[in-house]
Amino acid sequence: MTALNATHDPKLRSWVAAANVAGTDFPIQNLPFGRFRTAGSSEAFRIGVAIGDQILDLRATGLIDTDDMNVLMNASVKDRQALRAAISAGLAEGSGQQAAWSKALLAQAQAEMTVPCRIGDYTDFYTGIHHATTIGKLFRPDQPLMPNYKWVPIGYHGRASSIGVSGQVFKRPQGQTKAPDAVAPSFGPSKRLDYELELGFLVGRGNALGEPIAIGDAEDHLFGVTLLNDWSARDLQAWEYQPLGPFLAKNFASTLSPWIVTTEALAPFRAKFERPAEDPQPLPYLDAPSNRASGALDITLEVLLQTAKMRADGVAPVRLTLGNTTEAAYWTAAQLITHHTVNGCNLQPGDLLGSGTLSGPQPDQAGSLMELTLGGKQPVTLPNGEKRTFLEDGDTLVMRGWCEREGAVRIGLGEVAGTVV
Amino acid sequence: MTALNATHDPKLRSWVAAANVAGTDFPIQNLPFGRFRTAGSSEAFRIGVAIGDQILDLRATGLIDTDDMNVLMNASVKDRQALRAAISAGLAEGSGQQAAWSKALLAQAQAEMTVPCRIGDYTDFYTGIHHATTIGKLFRPDQPLMPNYKWVPIGYHGRASSIGVSGQVFKRPQGQTKAPDAVAPSFGPSKRLDYELELGFLVGRGNALGEPIAIGDAEDHLFGVTLLNDWSARDLQAWEYQPLGPFLAKNFASTLSPWIVTTEALAPFRAKFERPAEDPQPLPYLDAPSNRASGALDITLEVLLQTAKMRADGVAPVRLTLGNTTEAAYWTAAQLITHHTVNGCNLQPGDLLGSGTLSGPQPDQAGSLMELTLGGKQPVTLPNGEKRTFLEDGDTLVMRGWCEREGAVRIGLGEVAGTVV
């Protein structure tokens, strides 16, 4: 695990004024990486660091000599930390770099962002135990969780090609569905389109095929974290998923936030990783004192909705739910990395591991409409009187995440927005 | 569908002598693409065409100006056919290119091959109805096939990073397994390691997100076919796969043959695609007269095994099974492409679609040991007296494929071999 160091000092301020404004997602203690270009241009995307309301063009600073985020992600932990320290020093108040680096800034409002790295393979896990329990209850009231759930970090492979960046607009998927009492399936647009609130863990340095990553080393391979909306067509899923899992119900679109908040930036926001005493101890390959001591992430997650009518009326998105990752996830990022490689599978820089839907223990902390509306039976009423069981055309779904703690400066993950049309 | 033309003429002969030898996999009527370099060198891999026992360096002929197979795969059907015609003409007896192109040949025996393209996403389907029925019977004697099987081309996402080329040597995967009567799972090497005999369909030109590929256009997006061994750890799979499908049971390794036999080369080996009259008609989006008329591929598939002892004793691999794709697959490649995109999912050049295990209707045509040994209950006895229920360390599994028809020249897919250690 990354130790706290000078880059986390709450007294640290930047010569970029907006980075010092209380409540910003991007103070100098954060320094997330993304890929940007001037909006409206056809420039190649470059690596940037968010600072306040600006983006620092990292290559222009001379600290790196690549535009390829995956190359940067392949760096050793030591090199990653050295790069972070250098960026922090250069952006700090009183830095001798201010004059030069000022010319390497672009306002975020003038930038176009893209998916933050090339995602070779995308794996989606299922660590949200409250989500798994609530969804499981809808299908199997007597046994909501499968017998393997508390032993195996359940995961499946996802689709990399259809992953987009915040702002993604996609068409409502079509496909086969079958009503329980129907003789045959029918074809048409999904009527039960949902979102899933997830964290996206991005892999840094990978491992060779056949060489598992031990649990004690796993966090060295975690480059950072994004927000992930794993859009889901519940009606397609119900008909297609036996026996090999979700497929067309998921791969029409998935949306990532543009900024990778690094493992280093998250160091002040780690938590003890606790499981109920009655639960089985993980098998030794998934267990390490370091993981128990600080394997959890303490991130607040918020979901908001803006309907087409709200947009037309100039009404801002309204909150659907608010929760926290510490209570939601049954497995840590380190456990996911180790489990994924224990059979010899190779991870590569830029691979994406979804956390699974991070619903809290309370009903109003649910990370999907499927849970919030009890499988579509109980609509949510919005402040303007509109109702939703599932997403309707024109709906924009927004997810935000941030970390706050006594004695630390608040950092944010930014947001991920997406619209179905 | 690609029509027959002069490149299929059985009378066509090549100035590369070995291409005219009866029984070669690579006569001038085949012309498959692969990526090669001189064995032992550290050259970049280049695009080559197999001809007899040689490889034609395609860039050296001046017909292409790229070393990137995915660029070539993105070509239009018209351009693909034009390239094939030009290669065929240049390699034909009496060609004026003979003197120049002779210098662009490398003996296959002196070449190192690699995975034939960059595989962005890998999807594995489950089209082998006899496989699905036999495996299903082991779990559900009363209902071997799920209710969706004859409506939905069942598929799931696989792992691209661990796909290797023929000759791949991999370590036996470790992981969690649980005996039916055990209280808790245990950890260790898989004891039920199996192969799966599949075709790999490689996507040519892709589609934009949100723009499905109609069934009538689907074959235009199929670049060609390889052999695929989808190694499977049956004991890991049984414990992990509920509810989201196979994961670590599959992603430790998958092996492809090095040569992509193109859709154009396969034109003489198409078959009527028939399903039993009592089966449901596919939904309209999966149905097209062209697909019914010639959607099936007529490819003979053979599986062979060489144990470590056989290798030490100088004994060649022995046949385990022999079958044909026409009888094995319930869905065509065109139906897989259309189904995959009907929800808007985007395919990209180089994406791999596995057919699923292609077992024939007879027990001795089974495409996996799980089927051949009735779930490990009935060992196979090899000619030298060794027995196998599942694969043992040192076993090399070889798959071969070829097409033969009256009035056409035999073409081969080459072979895919892999060894577990």
UniProtKB/TrEMBL annotation, chains A, B:
SUPFAM superfamilies: FAH, Fumarylacetoacetate hydrolase, FAH, N-terminal domain. Ca(2+) binds at D124, E196, E198, D230. The active site is at H131 (proton acceptor). This is fumarylacetoacetase. The keyword tRNA processing does not apply. It comes from the Bacteria. Its cofactor is Mg(2+); Ca(2+). Keywords: Calcium, Hydrolase, Magnesium, Metal-binding, Phenylalanine catabolism, Tyrosine catabolism. Its EC number is 3.7.1.2. One of its GO terms (molecular function) is fumarylacetoacetase activity. One of its GO terms (biological process) is L-phenylalanine catabolic process. It is an enzyme of class 3 (hydrolase). Substrate binds at Y126, R140, Q237, Y241, T357. Residues 29-116 form the Fumarylacetoacetase N-terminal domain. Pfam families: FAA_hydrolase, FAA_hydrolase_N. Residues 150-421 form the Fumarylacetoacetase-like C-terminal domain. Pathway: Amino-acid degradation; L-phenylalanine degradation; acetoacetate and fumarate from L-phenylalanine: step 6/6. It comes from Variovorax boronicumulans. Mg(2+) binds at D230, K250, S254.
